[in-house]
Write a structure and sequence with these properties.
257 residues, alpha+beta, 6-stranded antiparallel β-sheet, 11 helices, globular, disordered C terminus
């Protein structure tokens, strides 16, 4: 299994595909910015290959365009003559096999992600293999968050899982975690050697027909997921609100298990 990441073909460059899809709709960057909630400067860098696509950005751009994440890899596969297997739902007997060395690859400073079953659309979840690169939360930087739920199973190495609402926790091979992915989170490699997980993401960017069934609106800011907490905090004194804002930093020193 370790050789999977070593043999993997070069990373995909979805920026050009996203640019073409946007232009086919006749949208300026400002329109996609409105629909995805991402700044035009970020979208421009993504389209021109100057910024790597984290899963949360990929999901938000896909939602803004009204497509599934798998469609991006499918566009590239179609360009190379590969077969695509569009929708129909899980009840029609379809299947997909991803061989060793295959899959849609996106490389970021934090993760190397290998998307599985990219030839199938209208999946109810996104399966991917992830290699975790960063070895400290300081190196990771800002948390990632995206709509939906996420499940990760540790295949190799030691994972230190950080999130907004919980103290960091260490996970070992065979351990797994299920969580609300709208909560800011980060995976950190906590030991020497390779660190890999199998992740399943359900939510934004998964099901195209669901996206098309509703008008694509501007996603709420990440803080919306914590509205009850924010509402309560708004009644507090400024000093206490400031203290709450620094809470995640205090977790860094918390005892890890």
């Amino acid at each position: 299994m370790t050789e999977q990441l070593k043999k993997e073909r070069r990373p995909h460059e979805p920026g050009a595909v996203l640019k073409r899809l946007r232009r086919e709709r006749g949208w300026p960057l400002a329109e996609l910015s409105k629909r995805s909630g991402l700044p035009t400067s970020t979208l421009s860098k993504v389209e021109n290959g100057k910024m790597s696509l984290t899963y949360d950005k990929l999901a938000r751009i896909s939602e803004g365009l009204g497509i599934e994440i798998a469609s991006i890899f499918g566009e590239q596969a179609a360009a190379s003559g590969a077969e695509r297997k569009p929708g129909g739902g899980a009840g029609n007997g379809r299947r997909s096999i991803t061989r060793n060395g295959e899959g849609g690859v996106i490389d970021t400073p934090a993760y190397r992600q290998i998307f599985q079953a990219t030839d199938l659309l209208e999946k109810k979840f996104v399966p991917l293999l992830g290699e975790i690169k960063h070895r400290s939360i300081e190196e990771f930087g800002e948390f990632i968050r995206h709509e939906g739920e996420e499940y990760s199973f540790v295949l190799e190495g030691v994972v230190e899982f950080h999130s907004e609402l919980y103290a960091p926790v260490q996970l070992y091979p065979g351990d797994s975690i299920f969580f609300d992915s709208s909560m800011g989170h980060a995976y950190i490699a906590a030991a020497e050697g390779p660190c890999r997980v199998l992740s399943i993401c359900a939510g934004t960017g998964v099901h195209a027909s669901e996206l098309q069934a509703r008008s694509v609106a501007v996603p709420q800011p990440p803080a919306a997921a914590l509205a009850p907490v924010i509402s309560k905090a708004s009644a507090e004194k400024p000093e206490r609100r400031a203290a709450r804002g620094r809470a995640p930093a205090k977790l860094k020193g918390a005892k890890r298990r």
